[in-house]
Amino acid sequence: MRHHGRTPRHTAHAEALRLVRVTKSYGTDDGGADRVTALDDITLSLPAGTFTAVMGPSGSGKSTLLHCAAGLDRPDSGVVAVDGEEMSGGPGPARSEAALTRFRRTRVGFVFQQYNLLPTLTVAQNTILPLKLAGRRVDRQRVERVLTDVGLGDRLGHRPDQLSGGQRQRVAIARALVTEPSVIFADEPTGALDTRSARDVLRLLQEAVRLHGRTVVMVTHDPVAASYADTVQFLADGRLAGQLTAPTVDAVAERLAHLGDNIPMGV
Ligand SMILES: Nc1ncnc2c1ncn2[C@@H]1O[C@H](COP(=O)(O)OP(=O)(O)OP(=O)(O)O)[C@@H](O)[C@H]1O
């Protein structure tokens, strides 16, 4: 089976994302039975210019990992750093909400399964929203270029309900790219798409990595989607459970089927 993710263009990698001993639990603090450990001591380092897929069974902590890594949620303990700069700390001095929001707006981009576009805004207005929210200058030509790059140069004035699912997700990718973030987090970006639209979206994420040097972290259930990544990180019960480099669809499916068996770590 063909591997869609090729070696990234850049060879000398800085570290784009680092998690050190990150833990996160939900439920009451009294140690009661309803307490769930969603992330259990996660340490992970992702070089800049790489495409990583995160996979694991339902409830294994994928979304929690993405949200903590992206600064949408705070870990209970541990450190998250983007571009070597600490985003949120456990016991140490945590950034204020406002500072965290500013940090997110400049360093990270998001792509969600359900696109999260504002229905009353046009394609162009949705795309520039992160720049406006960050109080940054809007370079109209650049916005048009980003939208042209995702194949929507002729749709600038359309509203989301005039677009297909695949086109909406491409707007979401343009919106994630427009701020030139270091890391783009994608949560099941192809979950609602047909095969062809999914492929277009995955290729755009690959291009963001190869052509623009971004770092992409994508949660997915789909071995085909994961095969576009350079590396797959597996999660089981809130812990890292090995990785696959240059993943093929078959190898990913095989590994997923055996998650929870005693697989050697880091193979
Ligand atoms: N807000 C919350 N309150 C309580 N428990 C939560 C909350 N969010 C997640 N959990 C629990 O934490 C664990 C990890 O959830 P998470 O959503 O990260 O898993 P996931 O791997 O993304 O699952 P899925 O593939 O089903 O989306 C699960 O046991 C879940 O029930």
UniProtKB/TrEMBL annotation:
One GO cellular component term noted in the UniProt record for this chain: plasma membrane
Listed transmembrane segments: none
Alphabetic keyword roster: ATP-binding, Nucleotide-binding, Transport
SMART domains: AAA (SM00382)
Source organism superkingdom: Bacteria
Gene Ontology MF, one: transmembrane transporter activity
Domain ABC transporter: residue ranges: 17-262
InterPro entries the record matches: AAA+_ATPase (IPR003593), ABC_transporter-like_ATP-bd (IPR003439), ABC_transporter-like_CS (IPR017871), ABC_transpr_LolD-like (IPR015854), MacB-like_ATP-bd (IPR017911), P-loop_NTPase (IPR027417)
Gene3D superfamilies: P-loop containing nucleotide triphosphate hydrolases
Name of the protein in question: ABC transporter ATP-binding protein
